[in-house]
Design a protein that fits this description.
Length: about 650
């Protein structure tokens, strides 16, 4: 079973356990000993099953089972055993011989086991990892209080003892809630390295960490002005959509440069009332150019402007997007692509940059909601630069040709092998460059296995499809069952150079992703949490320049979290404990699927304050964001925000 299936199985067994104990209790209370005995037997089996499912889940790591092992199983096991011993013999006797109905003790102990199972389930779903003393107190108090209330109703008359016990349960709960809510919020996590040394830090404001103002020798200045404004855009089908745009188009103008150029982008805001910034996704710009409102700059408000400058030192496929209310801004259209070509003669053939986006309910490739058609001479090299600008993973297939994945997140893959009838799934924010020589027959790029959508390539000289149907005829190809490429086993290990020795880490951080009750900017909600907290209460990860940093990202929940660190490229060490065996995998965004554990590493060589967040931007507004902070770097802005 996959780790995700184990999570679901464990939740199902936990639910069954609670239902069986509560059912047995209710049947006993209703004086139906036969049903109660049967349900008690079910409950015992389910409780044992729960121990089994927790044991199986523990194989994925302690993070997945901590509260279950330390609290839930002992609580359910203890109350369940008591109930079985107290109620079991009476129920059996009553069921067999029609003896006296099971008494108060039987009913109350059965309810106690049911409430314990229910409270344990709530503890997993609402609190999760890490288990805290406060959370444990609240859980026990909730089960205890419910039992006492039940006792009050089942027993003939309330006693003073029960009143006192009730008061005690309530007090425990309140204390626990207090302890749970009063953790040291927002303090930095030094990841096992030296803590912040204030004498050491010189207090460099992040706003002073700006890019150079000249290109490298031999480079040129690429000057762009992007004006953010609302507009009605017309898609290729003629459909009109209200959007937030750069220069009136969605996606915004494609930015290109050659390695060594200076990229200079003047951002102006005409009328985006919520404000706008530019973030260079995957591009490791100086921190002051990173476009994070409230941290590296103030958001640009209508009438305002901000000029970004950085050298095009990384080649490959990247994208830009607003980082101000990014959940809404990106969805509404404030994004575009950034492609940096290596120096030397331009590549021959067809080179397409294809940002894919869910725009107003339809999938658009660039500005096309109907398949666009391109032509290439048979044998000519084709490069398709796929960019997933959405919040969730996107699956692509290529029919009519074999291909290679030559770059991922802008970084070249070493020794990419030829693939056929294989799907590629891009994380939210991720990019794959697919390359192949144009065959003598048509090629279709499909998104989500939709044979009627995507992009069409035709060999030069072939007859175009009938003008009525125009491009985008249904390929008729069913790609739904094509397997998915596993990048951790694709390509060949690099020969020296790239393969840094990833050992002796200066800092070691763990991020456990889940859902739970937490304060998001002071508002209690069922948040997307990191180590049980939500933004801005998640401790910042503290590093010093040149530290070698390892980060373990664990997904305890049932949603995919595309993890994205600003300003750094991470190298993947392992996924689910299995090391990367193919090409070195250098990414800026990686999908941590339910139950998965990723270990990644990077060298801290880009001083600043950086966002480290889930790139499902809805999850950011629900709290799933934190900071990576270089010691001594400060921000003059209040309330550093990712949302
Ligand atoms: Cu693509 Cu913090 O963003
Ligand atoms: Cu997420």
């Amino acid at each position: 079973m996959t780790p995700a299936q184990l999570i679901v199985l464990d939740l199902a067994v936990a639910t069954l356990t609670a239902a069986a104990w509560l059912g047995a209790a209710a049947a006993a209370a209703a004086r139906r000993p036969r049903a109660a005995a049967a349900l008690l037997a079910t409950a015992l089996v389910a409780t044992l099953g729960r121990a089994g499912s927790v044991a199986a889940l523990s194989g994925s790591g302690w993070w997945f089972v901590q509260e279950k092992v330390t609290l839930v199983l002992p609580m359910v096991g203890g109350t369940g055993l008591t109930a079985a011993l107290v109620a079991g013999p009476r129920l059996i006797r009553a069921a067999r011989h029609g003896g006296p109905a099971p008494g108060t003790a039987a009913v109350v102990t059965l309810f106690a086991a049911g409430y314990a199972a229910l409270a344990g389930l709530a503890c997993t779903v609402l609190a999760g990892y890490p288990a805290t003393a406060g959370g444990a107190l609240v859980t026990v108090a909730a089960a205890g209080a419910a039992t006492l209330v039940t006792w009050r109703f089942v027993a003939p008359a309330p006693s003073a003892l029960r009143l006192w016990a009730g008061a005690a349960a309530l007090a425990t709960g309140i204390t626990g809630a207090g302890v749970a809510g009063a953790g040291p919020a927002g303090a930095a996590d030094a990841g096992g390295g030296p803590p912040s040394d204030h004498a050491h830090g010189h207090g460099v404001p992040v706003t002073s960490l700006r890019g150079p103002t000249t290109p490298e020798p031999g480079g040129t200045v690429r000057r762009y002005t992007l004006t953010a404004r609302t507009a009605t855009v017309t898609l290729s089908s003629g459909r009109r959509v209200e959007a937030w745009t750069f220069d009136g188009t969605v996606p915004g103008p494609p930015l290109t440069a050659t390695e060594g150029d200076l990229v200079e982008v003047r951002l102006r805001n005409a009328d985006i009332a919520r404000g706008v910034t530019l973030h260079w996704h995957g591009y490791d710009v100086p921190a002051g150019e990173d476009g994070v409102p409230g941290m590296t700059q103030e958001a640009v408000t209508p009438g305002g402007e901000f000029t970004y400058r950085f050298r095009a030192e990384q080649t490959g496929t990247y994208w830009y997007h607003t980082h101000q209310v990014s959940d809404i801004g990106v969805r509404m259209g404030l994004y575009g692509t950034l492609v940096v070509h290596p120096r030397g003669p331009a590549a021959e053939g067809l080179d397409l940059t294809l940002p894919v986006h869910a725009f107003d309910g339809t999938t658009v490739f660039g500005g096309h909601d109907r398949p666009a058609e391109h032509r290439a001479a048979p044998g000519a090299p084709v490069r398709l630069r796929l960019v997933n600008t959405d919040n969730t993973p996107r699956r692509f297939t290529l029919t009519g040709t074999a291909f290679r994945v030559v770059a991922v997140d802008g970084r070249d893959v070493s020794g990419p092998g030829e693939l056929e009838r294989t799907a590629v799934t891009l994380a939210a924010g991720g990019r794959y460059d697919l390359a192949f020589p144009m065959p003598a027959r048509p090629v279709a790029l499909l998104a989500g296995d939709n044979p009627a959508g995507g992009v069409r390539l035709r060999p030069d000289g072939s007859t175009p499809p009938s003008p009525v149907r125009n491009s985008g005829e249904d390929t008729g190809e069913d790609t739904g069952d094509w397997p998915e490429l596993d990048l951790t086993r694709y390509g060949t290990p690099a020969a020296g150079g790239d393969a840094a020795p990833w050992t002796a880490f200066d800092r070691d951080f763990t991020l456990v992703l889940d859902r739970g009750l937490a304060l998001v900017d002071g508002v209690p909600m069922y948040a997307q949490t990191v180590n049980g907290r939500a933004f801005p209460a998640i401790p910042a990860q503290l590093v010093r320049e040149n530290d070698l940093v390892r980060v373990t990202v664990v997904n305890r929940g049932l949603e995919v979290h595309p993890w994205h660190l600003h300003g750094h490229t991470v190298t993947v060490l392992s996924r689910n404990g299995r090391p990367v065996t193919g090409s070195p995998l250098r990414l800026d965004t990686f999908d941590v699927r339910p139950g998965e554990v990723w270990q990644v590493a990077f060298r801290a060589t880009n001083p600043g304050l950086w966002m480290n967040h889930c790139h499902n931007l809805t999850h950011v507004t629900q709290g799933m964001a934190l900071h990576l902070a270089y010691e001594g770097v400060t921000t003059p802005f209040e309330g550093a925000h990712g949302g």
